[in-house]
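Why this split exists: single-chain examples teach little about how molecules sit against one another. For that reason, every record in the complexes split bundles all components of an assembly together and asks for one structure covering all of them. Below is a record exactly as it appears in the raw files.
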Amino acid sequence: QTDIKTHIIGQTVRYYKTTTSTNEVAKDLARQGITEGAIIITEEQSKGRGRLGRTWQCPPRTGLCFSVVLFPRANPMEVPQFTMLAAVAVVKALYRTLGLRAQVKWPNDVYIEGLKICGILAEMAAEADRVKYVVLGIGLNVNQSKEDLVCFGNTATSLRVQLGRTLLRSQILKVLLEELDNLYTLWQQEGFLPLKGLWRDNALWIGNKVQVSGLNSNYQGTMEGIDDGGALLLRLYDGTIKTFYSGEVSLRPA
Ligand code: ATP
Ligand code: BTN
């Protein structure tokens, strides 16, 4: 960890052999004012969480499970942008370390060959229209075997399954922290616009027929892309464009 080339992300590291959820620990530490960019990393979570109350499962020591604490000058509406920033960082890190072509899936996943390899969970606290902290939780499947993934049906993969060999997690982590650091600095300096371009360049299903479903809604159309804030743009069959925010809906092929 001493040779990591970052300015903010990963300068402070809290390592736990086992914990409930790194996002929970990170939120506590954020409230206590830990330094910006601190990462909370673990070998095993008993209550790993995904979006919408779903669970994140990862056998001990097989994946990368960590959370980053950020104190951005941001509006609560901008927080989904950090999810997308992290997804782009994962794609870049997998390409740089392993030459793998991964893709971002709106709003919070990374896929390889149509299978989920990484999930991202951003959580925040805000006061009026000012963000107090953002916790960015990343779960990347690294050394899970095919058997470890059968519980997800035919929806998930790992780097080991893709490449046919086990990998050194620390090496991927180092590069991923560097990419997160670069992109967070870019966000601080130039906002979301350059990230929007990077996201779009690596996105799944743009121009394809997709379905967007929420608790009580279901829309089909063509995925146009995302707007300047990161919301999903769907072209309905009557030609109108409908905007979706990440909190409430899921995206899949139609
Ligand atoms: P969407 O994000 O579009 O709503 P999703 O199915 O990816 O759909 P998420 O909430 O993003 O839902 O992710 C949580 C889901 O991820 C869980 O319901 C589970 O099916 C799946 N999941 C849990 N752990 C893993 C893992 N290690 N690898 C791949 N998938 C996992
Ligand atoms: C999703 O796919 O919905 C998001 C999954 C996020 C998983 C990571 S693992 C580290 C961090 N701690 C958690 O409890 N969740 C995130």
